[in-house]
Amino acid sequence: SRFSAGLLQEARFEAENEVLEIVAGNSTQSLLERCSELLFGQSRAPPRQVNGVLGGSVLLSPALLPNQTVKEIEWSFSGGSGATIQVAEVGPAGLERPDPRDRFGRRLELVNGTALRLRGLQSGDSGVFGARIKLQPALVEDQAFNLSVYEAVPSPRTRSQLLASTLEWCNLTLQCQGSGRGAVNVTWRRDSLTWGQLGPGRHQLSPDGTTLRVALPPAATNATYACTVSNPADHKVALFDLQSLCQGGGGPSAFSTSGYVVLSLILVAVSLGGAFWCWRVNSRRRPRQVGNTTNPKSPNPRFPKSPNPQFPKSPNPQIPN
CA nearest 187: which of 230, 216, 154? Predict the structure, then answer.
């Protein structure tokens, strides 16, 4: 019929496209494997997402059933723009590196006989790791891991400002911002309650999520607000004690550690400048004082100097007759 003929033509068209993709993309799969996927509906599982932090480590562990026996595992890596390279072979002899001088060097190690650990993560390690697993008696299974490497999240910059504190209400703003170069996500929670569980009437969040305005009665200020700055691989938490902020006046602001460091450096610089100025002033006065002590000036000398110190000269000598 026309319907079955149309389905057959569509299947043929998809098969031809798959063959062209294999030839153009230099795929490692054979034509027989791709045809079996089309005919029997078999497809490779999507890559599992793995996130890591620069300088840290990740574990790539294949998912295996308890009754499966592994004969060999071939590990490959594709960075997206370059060609796919084979990075490791796991067999009865353990871990073997086809090219020990590749970008991974000595950073790869075998864990529990099947998993691969990558240490000292670098930004160029982001990519897809493939594991071709050969099982007993003659089965082959492919698994993939999509590794993304992120920068570590630094401590957030925090600030609190008390707007009003009365017997009935405590109104203040809490600010929390990321200080790193990469994009981060900012979330808030109160004790064990997430942002969605907080009362919207007493909480106002800025569009970018970095500033939270809180208005609570004094009886409800015995709580801790937590700000979490995170990326997919790392996170940092900053805490705000509302009771101390409301009762203690909160001060105009509460700076993070970096703010105190900058303030300390400014105070040290001012102190050194003042000490240097005092030293210059004292060094200019010192020569004048030394000159005055070496040539003292007598205010009212009682006797004039005489040529002969033993017999002073009489001012009006008398000539005898």
Answer: 230
Which range among 82-86, 302-306, 315-319 has the greatest average pLDDT? 82-86
pLDDT value at 294 more than 90: no
Fold of 157-252: Immunoglobulin-like (2.60.40)
CB atoms within 10 A of CB 283: 9
Query: Per-domain residue ranges for the chain?
Result: 1-43, 45-150, 157-252
Tell me the torsion sign for CA atoms 219, 192, 242, 176. negative
Q: What is the pLDDT of residue 255?
A: 40
| pTM across the whole model | 0.61
**Over residues 289-301, mean pLDDT:** 49
94 in Cβ contact with 110 (< 8 Å):
yes
Q: Is the peptide bond before 207 cis (omega within 30 degrees of 0)?
A: no
> The tokens 């942002």 sit on which residue?
195
Cα–Cα distance between 315 and 248 in angstroms, integer?
Answer: 88
The domain 45-150 belongs to what CATH superfamily?
Immunoglobulins (2.60.40.10)
